[in-house]
Amino acid sequence: MIRIAVNGAAGRMGGHVLRAVEQEPETEVVSALEAPGHPRLGETAAIGVQIGADLGAALANADVAIDFTLPAGSMPLVAAAAEQKVALVIGTTGFTPEEESRIEAAARAVPIVRAANFSLGVNVMLEVVAELASRLPDYHTEIVELHHAAKVDAPSGTALRLSDAIAASRGLDPKRSRVTAREGQTGARPRDVIGIQSLRAGDSAGEHTVLFAGPGERLEITHRALSRDNFAAGAVRAARWVVGRPPGLYSMRNVLSTSSAPAPDRTGAA
Ligand code: NAD
Q1: Is the pLDDT confidence value at 259 over 70?
Q2: What is the mean pLDDT of residues 201-209?
Q3: Ligand 1 atom nearest to 90, measured from its CA
Q4: For labeling, which of 36, 83, 158, 242 is most exposed (least CB within 10 Å)?
């Protein structure tokens, strides 16, 4: 049985992760964490597990922690997990470059799977857009993402990963080729930019479209998350995969390419 600590247990993703861990026969929730002072501290998160804020105690009996919080919630967990030698699955997005370096440093002590998107469909999409970008090298490429109104970071981590994949496939600098806003006298669009537009509205769990526009035609590829279950199932799959691995920073691509792939389940995310 793989013993899992869930960070951000009262959040949108935290709730889905708790249910996904309970539904998976080989995993169990051993602790549930929330921000200090959170109104739901003390509530029951799973059988015999109350939501707490003590990181050290939460990790003491865990093989792996799953984190969907905010960078301010992830960083103390990253430090504690490296110290206590507990594997990590990080789904939180919006880290600064300095925070990303601290995650890389922690991955020298423990195995960490980090993914901006744990859905099977988006991970396949990352490979498909890289292929399209290299086969349509002169086509203008833009990304449009839509998320629920409560999302606090933009562009989405998934949109950034999509633009990184396109830039890598075309030999472009990932940051200098990215354009995340246009206003006023922008001038004509240079060929080698990758535009990202972020929409925030309603309760969408996340939609991403990548379009490739050439003379007289446009190719679009769209992923729509219809619920958060696919992210949670992917995170639990990553948690099962990462326990017992050597220290290192792994991606969902590593998980999907080296785990024995069960047939897609009802959520399409297994
Ligand atoms: P949310 O606001 O519903 O939940 C975040 C939770 O983290 C809240 O309950 C909050 O109280 C808690 N939190 C904040 N600080 C904390 C701390 N110091 N310690 C413990 N808990 C703390 O947000 P959400 O929609 O669940 O998304 C969470 C993160 O996951 C975001 O960064 C989002 O972009 C990302 N996300 C990633 C994926 C993926 O597949 N990788 C999918 C969906 C969302």
Answers
A1: no
A2: 97
A3: 41
A4: 36
- In this predicted structure, the answer to whether residue 4 has a pLDDT above a threshold of 70 is yes
Centroid of ligand 1 to alpha carbon of 9 (angstroms): 9
Give every strand in the sheet of 27-33, ordered side by side. Answer: 44-46, 49-52, 27-33, 2-7, 64-67, 87-90, 111-114, 248-250
Q: Tell me the C-alpha distance between 159 and 146, whole Å.
A: 10
Angle at 58 between CA 26 and CA 117, to 5 degrees: 60
Which of 16, 85, 140, 147 is labelled catalytic? 147
Tell me the C-alpha to C-alpha distance, in Å, between residue 104 and each of 59, 89, 252.
20, 13, 16
Is there an atom of ligand 1 within 6 Å of 212 CB? no
Does the Cβ of 70 fall within 6 Å of ligand 1?
A: yes
Predicted model pTM: 0.89
Q: What is the pLDDT of residues 174-197, one digit of tens each?
A: 999 999 999 999 999 999 999 999
Whole-number pLDDT of residue 267: 30
Task: Give 93 Cα–ligand 1 centroid separation in angstroms.
Answer: 8
User: Does ligand 1 lie within 6 Å of residue 115's CB atom?
Assistant: yes
C-alpha span between 210 and 222 (Å, rounded): 7
User: Has 151 been annotated as catalytic?
Assistant: yes
